[in-house]
Amino acid sequence: MGFLARSRHRAADALAAAHAAEGVRYAGVCGGWMTLSGFSAPGVRSSWARRSMRWTLLLTDERIRLHALSNRYPDPIDAAWDDAGTARLEISVDPRGRLRLAFRAEAFRLDCAGSVVAELRLPDAADAAAIAEGLRGRRTGRPPAGAPTR
Fold it and tell me: What is the tally of structural domains in the chain?
């Protein structure tokens, strides 16, 4: 493992340690892409852009946090499971096995607007999606995706 990979994993470990009291369920570092459409934030404007990214995904009993390791938009998602934005967050796994998080930027940050799609290359994307849906369902009363209904 190279120097940069070790430093990314240390960053994920530090983020998990900072939120340990919240009950960490998943913490992972991965590569992927962020696609912005009609996006604006302080210092950033884009009608359409796709950028490769390095991410840290943190899922705790209390929150979801998606942290970009180097970007002018560092925390696209940092919200409690019972937050209104989290309820509208689209969580899926695409046919290539990437975790896909699609959302409106203003749902999580008042100083931002536009559509954001984060695609994360995780070796266990389906597991991460199931954990996220289970945590969101438990906090919001929504059944997890694919759960049987009566």
Answer: 1
Predicted structure pTM score: 0.84
Q: What is the CATH number of the domain that holds 29?
A: 2.30.29.30
Angle at the Cα of 134 (from 31 to 63), degrees rounded to 5?
A: 65
Which residue do the tokens 């852009």 mark?
49
Q: Residue 149 domain-assigned?
A: no
Alpha-carbon distance 45 to 92, whole Å?
Answer: 27
* 52 falls within a domain: yes
Comparison of pLDDT for 48 and 29, the residue scoring more: 48
Q: What is the pLDDT of residues 45-64, one digit of tens each?
A: 999 999 999 989 999 999 99
Where on the phi/psi map is residue 101: left (φ > 0), alpha (ψ -120 to 50), or beta? beta
pLDDT at 143: 52
- The answer to whether the CB of 102 falls within 8 A of the CB of 77 is no
